[in-house]
Amino acid sequence: xxxxxxxxxxxxxxxxxxxxxxxxxxxxxxxxxxxxxxxxxxxxxxxxxxxxxxxxxxxxxxxxxxxxxxxxxxxxxxxxxxxxxxxxxxxxxxxxxxxxxxxxxxxxxxxxxxxxxxxxxxxxxxxxxxxxxxxxxxxxxxxxxxxxxxxxxxxxxxxxxxxxxxxxxxxxxxxxxxxxxxxxxxxxxxxxxxxxxxxxxxxxxxxxxxxxxxxxxxxxxxxxxxxxxxxxxxxxxxxxxxxxxxxxxxxxxxxxxxxxxxxxxxxxxxxxxxxxxxxxxxxxxxxxxxxxxxxxxxxxxxxxxxxxxxxxxxxxxxxxxxxxxxxxxxxxxxxxxxxxxxxxxxxxxxxxxxxxxxxxxxxxxxxxxxxxxxxxxxxxxxxxxxxxxxxxxxxxxxxxxxxxxxxxxxxxxxxxxxxxxxxxxxxxxxxxxxxxxxxxxxxxxxxxxxxxxxxxxxxxxxxxxxxxxxxxxxxxxxxxxxxxxxxxxxxxxxxxxxxxxxxxxxxxxxxxxxxxxxxxxxxxxxxxxxxxxxxxxxxxxxxxxxxxxxxxxxxxxxxxxxxxxxxxxxxxxxxxxx
Length: 578
Fold this sequence. Notes:
Elements: H1 2-6, H2 8-12, E1 18-20, H3 28-33, E2 39-40, E3 54-55, E4 66-68, H4 77-80, H5 89-116, H6 118-137, H7 142-169, H8 176-200, H9 204-212, H10 229-234, H11 238-252, H12 258-261, H13 280-290, H14 310-319, H15 325-331, H16 339-343, H17 346-374, H18 385-395, H19 397-410, H20 413-433, H21 439-467, H22 473-490, H23 504-520, H24 535-541, H25 561-564, H26 567-571
Antiparallel strand pairs: 1-4, 2-3
Helix pairs in contact: 5-6, 5-7, 5-22, 6-7, 6-9, 7-22, 8-18, 8-19, 8-21, 17-21, 17-22, 17-23, 19-20, 19-21, 20-21, 20-23
């Protein structure tokens, strides 16, 4: 449903054909061509510049209004709000505002999901998405429509990326590929549903209501969607983790290890301090505040994170006399890591920069190929042509996602991403070279390129979540997606390059994809690895362990409990690690 709502823009602003009461209203491009008093006409082959090559035509308003062609669309924002001639720029503004909403939503809700949890962000955004979608369908004017589309795009982006991260954090390594690609298949399915609904409901208001009203059912997700156990673990909410694992174990008919059961009764055995040791001064301060805990020396407070350790048992015994043992423990825990800590780590900053570049190229090429493929649909102007073209474009994504699954399972994430980008790059370059000599072969090469770039699009979502830690995973994914949207906003302007050389857009897409394929090779391989919980875990993926600048070094074992608290999520998949 989120995919259908996000794709509504392509159906809402398609109809730009209008008839005035006295003459045919020229398309926007023609208006721009004759805006001046003297406009250069098509020049002859000898490139002469003579008066006969100029025209003195001017445009005139249509005082009697417009009569629109309704053979394809019953109603659009063009016909209802009369966005013709001098007002035609408002359709482009609405499109840009929609992308701006996605930019804001990807980044903003990524931060909120890392700070407040995945579940609350998904549920709130589902309801906001339904409200703004319905409000869009009831917009009385263009300003209201544009504002509601901005908010709708922001909430849709927040729902998709946060739900994607939550799904991956609920499973182990063996199920990440099918889980992530299932989301991509459903996205393509949403586009197919949108195309079919568009053929049945030719009015944009009814179509918007059809894809927005079902989202009201998101209120019932409160009883279905759980919080991410990995996020809870990084926040020190061990009681909630164990409670959630009990629920998962009950549904799956599994039994939790006895070592985890004490957490549910309030035992602090599994509390993991972020700092390896505590100072006597802080300990004595807390002792004076509570007046109950007898602390012998600082060595007694060297809390080990390992289950069953003597220090852990010692603290557990003494904490029984403390008025508030949970507060005592939490006072010695370092604050959770965040995006600022990640940016203090040079290696992770480099990986983030490379990933952002790959996202921008992938998104720009993906939308660019889609735009250029639509131009090759033939000269048929039947009433169903735009819908059929849209549906076929969505169908082309299915083999791309299938290719992504096969390559990720067999050769790993990094080579799969590099090969997908390389396939797209070589195909687009080949299409550019034969663009003028053999349009048919150019179309075939472009379609192959669409398969390759779709595969890359499916891989980068999973790859990004596996490279960066839980503490900032949603923020990083939101940042990458935001920068990717910037690439998508640039894609429509690639058509302007045809003025210099018709195949130039395809050649640019090809070169950019090949460069991105090379950049992907510097990233670490994540196949078979566990999702990193901390910055230290993320550094270990590439075999590099270096503390972030100005950040207390966290031992490599500080979050071993992440896996011990999630045995069924990780260990049950050992027989089929992908």
